[in-house]
Amino acid sequence: MSTAPTPSCPKLRVSDLCLTFERDGKRESILEHIDLSIGAGEFVCIVGPSGCGKSTLLHVLGGFLPPTSGAIEIDNEPVRGPDPRRIFVFQESAVFPWLTVAGNIGFGLSALPRKEREERIQHYIGLVGLEGFERAFPRELSGGMKQRLEVARALAVNPDVLYMDEPFAGLDFITRMTMRKELLRIWHRERKTVVLVTHDIDEAVQLGDRVLVLSSRPAHIHCELEIGMPHPRDVSAPEYIAMRTRILDELGVERGV
């Protein structure tokens, strides 16, 4: 079941991916027959029931967990493990508390000449709106500012794929809305390929070019939905409400409860 076209020249391609864990002598199927293609510069969101394996799928795509069977390719090359060209942004901030804002952003840039390194640091400080906080430490930043720093640090190493695992889930409502807007602004500027896992249906509809809806465990792709609305998206528009309702229906969520 699919309403979304398959990219003609995919950046990321997954073929018949399965993942099985062994616990207490029993084999448990986590992911089952996952097939998907994601185009270069595409923003894809993954939603699904709690505990279905959304984050696990993201870790497999990033090379942190080997699949039991199937194949993952990026630019027609097999993914055999983590790669500095593909960066994760997690819900829990992974910034280094002993480094300043500038130090965190520049952490992965030691191989660059000093001038280029400093220019890139300043570029991403400006891109995420942290001007004036170059010498601040993470403890001196708000939650939203820490997430901006996390995004800046991830982008500074110039990844070709950005994996995001519920990066705004721990933020308050207003900050979360602000960070969604900021992420869209940065994505339009940088055009990185983004794969974002979220439990928030509105976040998926507001951000994604496509939404992949996973089934309950063992998870497979229940359906793919193309959003087809330009950014920024009007949350009161009939097509927005219809898409949100469609995803809830696909997840089997009763409305009006």
How would you portray this structure in words?
The chain is α/β, with parallel strands linked by helices. The chain has a domain of 135 residues: Rossmann fold, CATH 3.40.50. The chain has 7 helices and 10 strands. Helix 6 crosses helix 7. The radius of gyration is 19 Å and the shape is globular. The chain starts with 9 loop residues before the first strand and ends in a 7-residue tail after the last helix. The N terminus is likely disordered.
Residue stretches low in confidence (pLDDT < 50, at least 5 long) are: 1-6
SS class: alpha/beta
Q: Give the C-alpha Rg.
A: 19 Å
Please write the CATH class name of the domain at 1-77 and 200-257: Alpha Beta
Residue share in helix: 25-40%
Biggest sheet character? 6 strands, mixed
What do the pLDDT scores average to?
91
Strand content: 25-35%
Form type: globular
CATH architect. name of the domain at 1-77 and 200-257: 3-Layer(aba) Sandwich
Which fold name fills CATH's third level, the topology of the domain at 1-77 and 200-257? Rossmann fold
Quickly count the helices.
7
Q: What order do the strands of the largest sheet run in, or round the barrel if closed?
A: 6-7-8-3-9-10
